[in-house]
Amino acid sequence: MTNPYTMSSDINPYQTSYNNLPQYNTYPGPSNRNTSSKSGPSTFGMMTLGALGGGAVGYFKNRYPVQKDGTVSDSFAKEVFEKNLKKNRSETAQKFFNQLNNVLKKIDKINSPEGLKKLLKENKEIIEEQCKGISVDTFLDGINSSNLKETQKSLKEVLEKNLDFEILKTKNAIKLGWNNDSKKFIKTPEFKDNKLFDVIKNTKNNIQWKKALKYGGITAGIMGALTIGYKFFTKN
Fold it and tell me: Most exposed: 3, 168, 204, 207, by fewest CB within 10 Å?
């Protein structure tokens, strides 16, 4: 008698043929992916372009040390002043301004009367210059905890104004030798300091390219950052 529950060995009722089911391409292959990130600009290339373009803009923007309205930049005047001081001024003048800068650098860090007295004694040219109506000893003896902050503030302001005045005098000298029509420095009879004139003329080209390279570096950084951002978003 034949068993009704006996199935042929070639047929499995629990097996489903997956070959007969419809096929769905759920995950696109590599050929369907966005490849725009691969074809985008390179970061290095964009930064190079930014540096060249920014440097060119910076150079042409700052190619003249004196602007049309007669303005001389603080940085140019400061560089001329420092070079002239080092090259042409006396050792006494150099020592004075070295001490002046040293006091300005440290004065804000002083937190005691003895600390301020010590700083001024180590830079005696500065304190001697400031004590014309009163002796140095009397001035130093009068510094105490109650007037320390006020003394520091007042002395700092005086020394900064000293430097500001030197920069102003240097700017006036720079304008004295500048010919706005020819856009260059011309030695005139009014400009009697030949050594200073040579410093001004030699400083001109150096500071042009310093500003240009700084401008180009900033532009390159921006271009590089934008390119990285572009690649990030196109990749995602």
Answer: 3
The helix or strand, by DSSP H or E, that contains position 185, with its residue range, turns out to be strand 184-185
Residues 145 and 116: their CA atoms lie apart, in Å, by 11
Q: Which residue has the tokens 């590599």?
A: 30
- Model confidence at 217: pLDDT above 60: no
43-61 and 194-235 helices cross at what angle (nearest 10)? 150
Q: Give the pLDDT confidence score for residue 47 in this predicted structure.
A: 54
pLDDT at 234: 59
CB atoms within 10 A of CB 194: 10
CA gap 118, 69 in Å, rounded: 46
Mean per-residue pLDDT for 181-201?
92
Question: For residue 55, what are its two tokens?
Answer: 């440097």
Give pTM, 2 decimals: 0.62
Has residue 11 got a pLDDT over 50? no
Structure tokens at 138: 């009397």
Dihedral angle sign, alpha carbons of residues 132, 138, 140, 142: negative
d(CA 148, CA 113): 6
Tokens of 129: 């210059």
Cβ-contact 54, 219 below 8 angstroms:
yes
